[in-house]
Amino acid sequence: MRKTIRSLHKMYTTGTPITMITCYDYTFARLVQRAGADMILIGDSLGNVIQGHETTVPVELEDIIYHTRAVIRGNQDAHILSDLPFMSYQANDDDGMRAAGKLLKAGAQSVKLEGGKEIAPLVKRLVTAGVPVCGHLGLTPQSVHAMGGFRVQGRGDDAAKRLIEDALALQDAGAYMVVLEMIPAPLAAQVTEALEIPTIGIGAGNQTSGQVLVIYDMLGMNTDFTPKFLKCYANLEQEIEGALKQYKQEVVERTYPGPEHSFEK
Ligand code: KIV
């Protein structure tokens, strides 16, 4: 039985940290199931780690739908949260409503949007229509060009005040959760304290209601990507490269396939 927004809220009220991880395919979704993460985010970070783009801007709604469908076949327990990608909701709220509807029809249980006060009316409309919404504040990668790069947000009194107001606006509009990306840890703690819904941090210290990481990054599959907040729990880049090199060598040497991998008759 998948975690619902109700069960996630219960974790929040009982002080149980919520584990969210991004995931984009069936095979990884099965492993996430065994590890027991509470939430899977089919994030538009797939633009970076799957598609090889520098930003999430090129990601299309169809991409998120495709990966959402693959993930839900591999995991039956985690809450499925899917991103609304860039320009699927910014041009007008009707677009956002239809895009969110397509994600739910594909199997998502809730959707994530980037932004604060300016998207509150859409959040309210979505929630009223039965679409649970997770907000996303701080570093919002869909606005990377406007922000002038991937940098820590919410520094300074004015920026911090704006961020708290945005979080409260999302909560008032009916959001069930807010992701806080790359903001100072004390500010994330302050936002968490101010809200009555869970916060999920990435680069936001350890006082949020839960954490999220991009699965390929935390498995050490791209050691060129080294933001301060990232902890690599494995070094799969080295492991996978080693395996691929060994395979190539054995093919060249004709030591693979050996008799144990061959059919006699
Ligand atoms: O797209 C994504 O993976 C995200 C997380 C980094 C929060 O939005």
Proportion of residues in β-strands: 5-15%
What value does the Rg take, in angstroms?
20 Å
Task: List low-confidence stretches.
Answer: none
Q: What's the CATH topology label of the largest domain?
A: TIM Barrel
The CATH class of the largest domain turns out to be Alpha Beta
The helix-and-strand class reads: alpha/beta
What strand order characterises the main sheet?
Answer: 1-2-3-4-5-6-7-8
Spell out the CATH superfamily of the largest domain. Phosphoenolpyruvate-binding domains
Ligands bound, unique: 3-methyl-2-oxobutanoic acid
Shape: globular
Tally of extended strands?
Answer: 8
Please summarize the sheet with the most strands: 8 strands, parallel, barrel
Cα(first) to Cα(last) distance is: 46 Å
Number of helices: 11
Integer tally of domains: 2
Mean of pLDDT? 97
Task: Return the string of H and E elements.
Answer: HEHEHHEHEHEHHEHEEHH
How helical, in percent, are the residues?
40-55%
CATH architecture of the largest domain: Alpha-Beta Barrel
What does this structure look like?
The chain starts with a helix and ends in a 12-residue tail after the last helix. It has eleven helices and eight strands. With 265 residues, it is α/β, with parallel strands linked by helices. The longest helix has 18 residues, at 236-253. Helix 2 crosses helix 4 (61-74), helix 4 runs parallel beside helix 5 and helix 6 packs parallel to helix 8 (157-173). Strand 4, helix 6 (120-128) and strand 5 form a beta-alpha-beta unit. The structure holds 3-methyl-2-oxobutanoic acid (KIV). 3-methyl-2-oxobutanoic acid (KIV) is lined by residues 22, 41, 43-45, 83, 136, 179, 181, 202, 212, 214.
